Amino acid sequence: MGRAFEFRKGRKMKRWSAMAKAFTRIGKDIVMAVKEGGPNPEANSRLRAVIQNSKAVNMPKENVERAIKKATDKDTANYKEVLFEGYAPHGIAILVETATDNNNRTVANVRSYFNKCNGTMGTQGSVEFMFDHTCNFRIPANGIDPEELELELIDFGAEEIFEDDDGILIYAPFGSFGTIQKELENRGLEILSSGFERIPQITKKLIEAEVADVEKLIEKLEEDDDVMNVYHTMEEE
């Protein structure tokens, strides 16, 4: 198995655990998707992907429809995706993906979390290069051979495909998202969920006390409503 498999195994059950938080994030994704490509999922591949993800976290259909309708209102604020970089204690690189309608608030909040947890905010590009920006898709296993599927999807950008308890996962570079999404749809394969992740190229093993220091910062960041994802270079069990 490759790095994507190990990364997914380490993060399993540790992210998006709070249902209310997941709904909030989906709601923001819907607004950004609609503002970018319109409210029709058939003509908006990004919105189709978000709707698939809403089903994966059991978000009620009426909530999704309400969010789409709200997003079409010109008075609804749009969210801007902003990436923050820095270091947690013990030399652990941190990437923070946010979606905000008030950049000043988000900057102030994120900086305060780093300061309170003995971390350091970095400049743009200071740690982003340590992570591979990837896209991923989850489809039902349904008797599909992951190795055979990997051979078939290599030409569309797929780099790693493996099976876990919840289906088959497909990983590819960030830029291959649209190509693979279209190919899976053309094949009539159901996409259970999809998204983007940043996989650390190298991880660092810490002792238990050091892990606690880093987890304190990660938890502070993840509790913020503007924060969508937090990635780090700490080795996870």
UniProtKB/TrEMBL annotation:
Residue intervals of the TACO1/YebC-like N-terminal domain: 4-73
Major place of residence: cytoplasm
InterPro entries, A to Z: Integrase-like_N (IPR017856), TACO1_YebC-like_2nd/3rd_dom (IPR048300), TACO1_YebC_N (IPR049083), Transcrip_reg_TACO1-like (IPR002876), Transcrip_reg_TACO1-like_dom3 (IPR026564), YebC-like (IPR029072)
Family the UniProt entry places it in: Belongs to the TACO1 family.
Pfam families per the UniProt record, alphabetical: TACO1_YebC_N, Transcrip_reg
Keyword Transcription: yes
Domain of life: Bacteria
Native source organism of the sequence: Flavobacterium algoritolerans
Residue ranges occupied by any TACO1/YebC-like second and third domain in the UniProt entry: 79-234
Keywords, ordered alphabetically: Cytoplasm, DNA-binding, Transcription, Transcription regulation
TM helices/strands, residue ranges: none
Compartments in which it is found: Cytoplasm
Keyword match Transcription regulation: yes
Protein name per its UniProtKB record: Probable transcriptional regulatory protein QLS65_08255
Alphabetized GO MF terms: DNA binding
